[in-house]
Amino acid sequence: MAKGYWVSVYPAISDPEELAAYDKLAGPAVQAGGGRNLSLLPSRGGRVVAHEAGITQRVVLIEFDSFEQAVAAYESEAYQKALVALPDGFERDFRIVEGID
Asked: Where are the annotated coiled coils located (predicted)?
């Protein structure tokens, strides 16, 4: 079974502190849904090299055991509560993608 991944890129973050409420809710919701953080860059000190139209702002990569599990975690009540905590006008590019077996 192919794994599922959440991929989030935040094009611009004017105030990283505004994400604190979302992060406090999203982390436990992701873990409860079976997700594992593979990348939280550059906030955890990791390196980012951007090419083409890439950006070096926050990049989040979360792995799930299956695509279906990734979708279910996003649709969960706990994660939906986290989404409400995202600041108004906040922009991110979020995708759920299926891995290759």
From this structure: none
